[in-house]
Design goal:
Blueprint: H1 12-22, E1 28-37, E2 40-50, E3 56-68, E4 71-85
Antiparallel strand pairs: 1-2, 2-3, 3-4
């Protein structure tokens, strides 16, 4: 089941606070492609997140950032579960 969550975060501190509540540890992020055109940057890659029990879930992702005046003004993030691993190291 895919879940769509929309949340607006304003400023670096708001992003940092959100990350503290969402991640048990920093995710493993592998960028396969980074594409820039005009005001947009798109990243395609793989992401691994661990839950509080140490189980890892592997995702494919696509993030699309939009910039204005040298600052990020929008991020659209899309993920798809690749697989889940129990008792990941």
């Amino acid at each position: 089941m895919d879940i769509c969550r929309r949340q607006a975060l304003n400023g670096k501190e708001a992003v940092r606070q959100w990350m503290v509540t969402e991640y048990v540890e920093p995710p493993l992020n592998i960028v396969a492609n980074l594409i820039a055109e005009g005001d947009f940057v798109t990243a395609l890659g793989d992401l691994t997140l661990k839950d509080k029990d140490g189980r890892a879930t592997h995702y494919s992702y696509c993030d699309v950032w939009r910039f204005r005046g040298g600052k990020m003004v929008e991020l659209k993030a899309f993920t798809e579960v690749k697989d889940e691993t129990s008792n990941a190291a």
